[in-house]
């Protein structure tokens, strides 16, 4: 039995407290979709070191789209900027090739990435809104008999 757990990396517009369990995602921009990792502390350490060089940056909320296998998940696309694309590439690179190979070389890492904000009921964001991306949360998928997720680390950009 594997002791690898599933995680995702996201910028949280609505910031949950670290360790707080949620079943519905707060507003967020997915930077890296679900990946497996045996020792998340190694990966977080690499991200923290890298974050010292990353400057906070703005992205703009774009048009509406539908995601999901049957197109039933409403989202707002986020315009791909150089800093956002570079952040995505950096978190992928560290996971795949970083010290100790903290993660797995899952096909999800290499799948096309379309940054977006999922619309959740009354929680939405208007097209054209500028969002300051200044941190990255590592979110764990909980598999202990409960349904939910929780942020286990928040890495601030210090560049």
Q: Can you give keywords for this protein?
A:
159 residues, alpha+beta, Cyclic Phosphodiesterase, Chain: A, five-stranded antiparallel beta sheet, four-stranded antiparallel beta sheet, 3 helices, 20% helix, 38% strand
Write structural notes for this entry.
The chain is an alpha+beta fold. It is built from three helices and nine strands, in the order E-E-E-H-E-E-H-H-E-E-E-E. It has helices at residues 40-51, 82-97, 107-110, and strands at residues 5-12, 21-22, 28-37, 57-67, 73-78, 116-118, 130-133, 135-142, 148-156. The strands form two sheets. A five-stranded antiparallel sheet has the order 2-9-8-1-3. A four-stranded antiparallel sheet has the order 6-5-4-7, with no helix packed on it. A hairpin with a 5-residue loop joins strand 8 (135-142) and strand 9 (148-156).
Structure summarized in a few sentences:
By secondary structure, the chain is α+β, with helices and mostly antiparallel strands.
Layout of helices and strands, plus pairs?
Elements: E1 5-12, E2 21-22, E3 28-37, H1 40-51, E4 57-67, E5 73-78, H2 82-97, H3 107-110, E6 116-118, E7 130-133, E8 135-142, E9 148-156
Antiparallel strand pairs: 1-3, 1-8, 2-9, 4-5, 4-7, 5-6, 8-9
């Amino acid at each position: 039995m594997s002791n690898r757990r599933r995680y995702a990396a996201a910028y949280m517009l609505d910031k949950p407290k670290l360790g707080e369990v949620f079943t519905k995602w707060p507003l967020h921009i997915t930077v890296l979709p679900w990946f497996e990792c045996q020792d998340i502390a190694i990966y977080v350490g690499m991200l923290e070191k890298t974050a010292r060089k990353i400057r906070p940056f703005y992205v703009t909320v774009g048009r509406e789209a539908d995601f999901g296998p049957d197109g039933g998940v409403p989202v707002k696309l986020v315009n791909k900027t150089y800093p956002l694309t570079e952040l995505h590439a950096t978190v992928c690179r560290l996971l795949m090739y970083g010290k100790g190979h903290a993660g797995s070389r899952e096909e999800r890492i290499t799948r096309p990435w379309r940054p977006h904000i999922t619309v959740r009921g009354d929680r939405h964001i208007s097209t054209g809104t500028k969002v300051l991306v200044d941190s990255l949360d590592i979110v764990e998928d909980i598999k202990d008999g409960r349904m939910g997720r929780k942020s286990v680390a928040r890495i601030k950009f210090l560049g």
